[in-house]
Amino acid sequence: MTRQQRIGRHPILAPLEPASVPFTFDGMPLLARPGEMVSSALYAAGIKVFGHHHRDRGAQGIFCVNGQCSQCTVLVGGRPLKSCMTAVRAGMVVASCDGRPPLPADDAAAVLGRPGEHETEVLVLGGGPAGLCAAVELGRLGVRVLVVDDKPQLGGKLTLQTHQFFGSVQGCWAGTRGIDIARILAAEIAQLASVEVWLDAAAVGVFADGKVGIVKDGGYRLARARALLVALGAREKSLAFPGCDLPGVYGAGAFQTLVNRDLVRAARRLFVLGGGNVGLIGAYHALQAGIDVVGLVEALPQVGGYRVHADKIKRLGVPVWTSHTVARAEPGPDGEQLGRVTIAAVDERFRPIAGTERSFEVDTLLIAVGLNPCDELWHKAQELGLATYAAGDTAEIAEASAAIFSGRAVGRQIARDLGVPVDIPEDWPATAALLRSRPGRIVPFEAQDRPQAVFPVIRCVQEIPCDPCVAACPERLIAIEGSIMGLPRFSGTCLGCGRCVLACPGLAINLVHNDYDPSGEKALLMLPFELPLERIPAGGEVPTVDIEGNPVGAGNVVAVRQREDQDRRLLVMLEVPAADKLRVAGFTVRGPSPPIEAGASDAEADPVVCRCERVRRSTIAHEIRQGVRDLNQLKALVRAGMGGCGGKTCTELVRRIYRDEGVDPDEITPGTTRPLVAETALGAFARGEPGHE
After folding, report:
1. pTM: predicted TM-score of the whole model, two decimal places
2. Is the pLDDT of residue 657 over 80?
3. 348 and 265: one domain?
């Protein structure tokens, strides 16, 4: 058996059960954890190539690990299945999907049935933060609710978030880690008698008779409700560049699934493309897992995510290049898997500038260039005139804190529309708007020395919706003027308890102890730290950095406080020269990664746009130049959008090619979305639901 590539110790996450479930892949004996998905078990075994496409023998691996694409298809018992949605069973026989998979043999033992039909008052599609919060609000009012989710556990993306959330403490658990919010909501749902939950169940269609088709337990069911809430979240956007289809190039959310849900050491050295919150947080999660982050690029002149997220990875030693992009990805020695990335500066039209290239050896490239809402069923239900609602990213892409609050608000609105008397506070719409706000203005950082024994330095310099530090201070010495978008300010006499250091989701607060050294030559800082303890050098001397990761000098770690009430965050007591006490914001844990020679590229210059059907940019551009303006016609001509994902990954890329070719978006006829919106085995319709023969 291969050596397991798993994360044994994590600073935030508890250990998981050891791998003990035997299965085989291409005849090779492997082990998986109980309940683990095939894709994660393969990655844990160091296997990143899951097969080869029948069109051009292109290597296939993972991309979304969320059931939204078909990149990770393997053969399980001879049947093609998405490995990220298929749990390993003892004795399972898994094989590479090389070429066209053969048709499976007829199941002579199958019992034909008809769909079971289920009635409820509210049908909630999606068990993530928005769907669960809506279900909790409705369940508390006694409304009958059915929650449907295609994963084996509730929580959605909350189950991947090890960091503390921003937002409002009162409105959306700001200051609490996403993984803990998922547990809180799942526990609340379990206590509500009127709420039923279907897990491992996928909604695949909405129909004119008001019924929703759902695949569960290998069979097809129909559900009808007085109100339908679609809260299916979002899927990751893609980007077409030479080598974008190589195994090892995949979404940042997929990476978080492997690392934070399944504790798989999915990479050795990685690079991040995209400076929004998803990319910045993904880089931080990689460092927490002991994975080296070589760098991050963002095409815009500044990162789009929160400044505190960018600052904390810079302080740890991760370089962030703005006005840069990935020019190409290239395979390593095996010719199939990612071996290096080449980045370049971009011009005002985001085109790579010749002569600015630099290359780095990596085995993983995370794509974090934004999200698209999973809203097909919502739009279809609206088109059919059904009583339908949307919440979370399905309604508007925003932070998870906004999804939590929008779920609460929509849940109460649905109850009111059903005739249930319920209060909707007047300030909720304004709070919801604040939580959806994009980062605001940035003010220059200026630390103020104070003639006190101890005081906090708050390096929160950008307007973002966040207030945990205000609630954390027992003396109420930290305040935010106006809304939670304001910047926190400290005044008064600090007790030195460190609760604000523990509460800040951005790790942007530290304490200065002036009374540490009677001579006044040294000062003691209390710094937050969420990486493994072994990342602190044994000798205790560390290179100190300022707010943006620029070198300051050296410090000496004199103690590390680690208590149960610190929510898995360490407090490092760092001795520094008194002259540096206001500048030092942290210390780096990694040195620079010098680039390798870029040289001439052998990478394919004509990138794959449609991953499912391996359709390249030149093929699509040719048809556009021939006058094709209808995405349905384009699909018929070149098969872009005809694969397993149904165009979810490539449609936006195709629209971008139209723009690059100078076509007005108003000239383009959009593609038609029809049921079924997810791959569904025909056998599911034959089997129906047990008990409904």
Report:
1. 0.95
2. yes
3. yes
Residue 322 sits in the same domain as residue 423? no
For CA atoms 497, 174, 300, 320, give the dihedral sign: positive
Report the alpha-carbon distance of residue 462 to residue 486 in Å, rounded.
Answer: 8
**In this structure, what token pair is assigned to residue 483?**
């809304």
Residues 429 and 461 in one domain: no
Count Cβ atoms below 10 Å from residue 97 Cβ, excluding itself.
22
In the chain, the amino acid numbered 404 is I
Number of domains in the chain: 5
User: Residue 565 belongs to what domain range?
Assistant: 454-587
Burial (0-12, 13-18, 19+ Cβ within 10 Å), 666? exposed
The residue count for the chain: 693
Instruction: Decide which of 51, 72, 103 is a domain's last residue.
Output: 103
How far apart CA 287 and CA 313 sit, in angstroms, is: 9
Identify whether residues 253 and 343 lie together within a single domain.
yes
**Residue 172 within any structural domain of the chain:** yes
Of 442, 451, 297, the closest CA to residue 367 belongs to 297
Instruction: Give the CA distances from residue 449 to residues 316, 354, 457, 520, 585, in Å, rounded to whole numbers and listed in that order.
Output: 25, 47, 9, 14, 14
* Collapsed DSSP state (helix, strand, coil) of residue 54: coil
* Rounded Cα distance, 413 and 137, in Å: 10
Predicted confidence at residue 101, as pLDDT, reads 72
Cβ-in-10-Å burial (0-12, 13-18, 19+) of 541 comes to middle
Q: Are residues 423 and 493 in the same domain?
A: no
Please provide the DSSP assignment of 545-558 as one string.
E-TTS-EEEEEEEE
CA distance 90 to 32: 9
User: What is the per-residue pLDDT across 237-274, written as a single tens digit (0 to 9) for each?
Assistant: 999 999 999 999 999 999 999 999 999 999 999 999 99
CB 352, CB 172: distance < 8 Å: no
| Residues 325 and 297: beta-carbon distance below 8 Å | yes
The answer to whether residue 596 is domain-embedded is no
User: CA-to-CA distance for 102 and 330, rounded, in angstroms?
Assistant: 31
DSSP 283: H
Token pair for 481:
């003027």
DSSP string, 263-277: -B---SEEEEE--SH
C-beta atoms surrounding 447 within 10 Å: 16
- Residue 257 backbone phi and psi in degrees, to 5: -65, -50
φ, ψ at 49 (rounded to 5°): -105, 115
Residue 524, both tokens: 């003691």
CB atoms under 10 Å from CB of 345, counted, come to 20
Does 149 share its domain with 219?
yes
pLDDT range class, residue 693, cuts 50, 70, 90: very low
What does the CA dihedral 680, 686, 688, 693 come to, rounded to 10 degrees?
180
Label the pairing between strands 615-616 and 608-610. Answer: antiparallel
Query: How do 21-25 and 28-32 pair as beta strands?
Result: antiparallel
**In a shared domain, residues 424 and 403:** yes
Determine contact, residues 479/488, Cβ cutoff 8 Å: yes
Residue 603 lies in a domain: no
Does residue 633 sit in helix, strand or coil? helix
Distance of CA 208 to the CA centre of its chain: 34
Structure token pair of residue 163: 């960091």
| Distance, CA of 113 to CA of 242 (rounded, Å) | 48
Mean pLDDT, to the nearest integer, of 305-333? Answer: 97
Please report the beta strands in 562-693, taking only residues with DSSP state E, as ranges in sequence order: 570-577, 586-587, 608-610, 615-616
pLDDT-derived band at 123 (thresholds 50, 70, 90) equals: very high
Are 130 and 167 members of one domain? yes
Strand-pair partners of 372: 235
Q: Mean pLDDT, the chain, as a whole number? A: 94
CATH number for the domain harbouring residue 326 = 3.50.50.60
pLDDT digits (tens, 9 = 90+) for 164-200: 999 999 999 999 999 999 999 999 999 999 999 999 9
